[in-house]
Write a structure and sequence with these properties.
This protein is of the alpha/beta class. It is 35% helix and 23% strand.
């Protein structure tokens, strides 16, 4: 295949997505001065439908499908995703070519009075569009009133300032990339809230047979993060979960070659929390992901997930 001197990067159009895509563009330009890189903005289903809770839309790949279609149609040469948005099943012909070094994967609380989760007033209103965040926060603060909050990260920050919410939950990584890390009132510890699968990392998706692109994106590859994210994604696939099912997970490399992973499955109201962990050699990340999934399913996770899927299916809109 003839090497191209112009390469198109596909991205969503939100402020955060463009910050991420422009960082990828900048890193690739530094190493490939003879190539011209441009960014093509592509609107996704999740971007177009903003007045319905994500869990009720009933679609896999809400923030990725249109980007993947553009990649398959060769309208773009690579796409930049937040790893947490990616479905566990990738279309034939595509693959995750690189996973970038992870920012802080934890969730962050931003409150009007700059107070912690445990110090929020009784019955305070907390905004989040994530069932994972909702279920875990209700497990420790069942009194809180959860308000569905859609929109890009900068939109959600604005709604906290202008609305009647007391606090919101967001990804710390997004705050950091937006230059707003100082807005966090508290970074939620893992023992209170496990993050979404892949949270904090970027995935670079490419066509599997595109040798030129696969080669040039390797400068973005961070292998410790890749192993951790792939372990989490294996767990999610076995649990048949998606980004709107309340499953939290976090894997990390334990020096020198071990990998430790924790995961949680919660009921929507937070009254039932099933949490477990595994540790093993990093090369066995797929086995570990499946092993941890089986532990959760065997301890009651299967029934919780079946109940949630039944409930969400009844609420989904066309």
């Amino acid at each position: 295949m003839e090497n191209r001197n112009k390469i198109v990067i596909g991205s969503r159009g939100s402020k955060l997505a463009l910050i991420q895509a422009n960082w990828v563009k900048s890193e690739l330009e530094k190493a490939n001065k003879e190539i011209e890189f441009t960014i093509e903005i592509i609107k996704t289903t999740g971007d177009n439908i903003t007045d319905v809770p994500l869990s009720k839309i009933g679609s896999i790949g809400l923030f990725t499908k249109e980007l993947e279609d553009a990649l398959l149609d060769k309208k773009v040469d690579l796409v930049v995703h937040s790893a947490k948005d990616m479905a566990t099943d990738i279309p034939d012909g595509l693959e995750i070519g690189a996973v970038t070094k992870r920012e802080d994967p934890r969730d962050a609380l931003i409150s009007k009075d700059n107070i912690s989760l445990k110090d929020l007033p009784q019955n305070a209103k907390l905004g989040t569009s994530s069932l994972r965040r909702k279920s875990q926060v209700l497990a420790c603060r069942p009194d809180l009133k959860i308000v569905d909050l859609r929109g890009n990260l900068d939109t959600r920050l604005n709604k906290l300032e202008t609305g009647d919410l007391d606090a919101i939950l967001v990804a710390m990584a997004g705050l950091t990339r937006l230059g707003c890390a100082d807005k966090a009132s508290e970074v939620i510890p893992y023992d209170v809230m496990l993050p979404a699968v892949g949270q904090g990392a970027l995935c670079i998706e490419v066509r599997g047979n595109d040798e030129q692109i696969n080669k040039i994106i390797q400068i973005l590859q961070h292998f410790d993060t890749r192993f951790a994210v792939m372990a989490e994604r294996t767990l999610l696939k076995r649990l048949q979960g998606g980004c709107q099912i309340p499953i939290g997970a976090h894997a990390e490399i334990i020096f020198p070659v071990n990998l430790k992973m924790e995961a949680v499955v919660c009921s929507l109201d937070g009254t039932t929390v099933i949490r477990d962990s595994v540790e093993g050699k990093v090369d066995d990340f797929a086995t570990m992901g499946n092993e941890l999934a089986e532990k959760l399913l065997g301890r009651g996770g299967r029934q919780i997930l079946e109940d949630i899927r039944t409930k969400l299916a009844g609420e989904q809109v066309n």
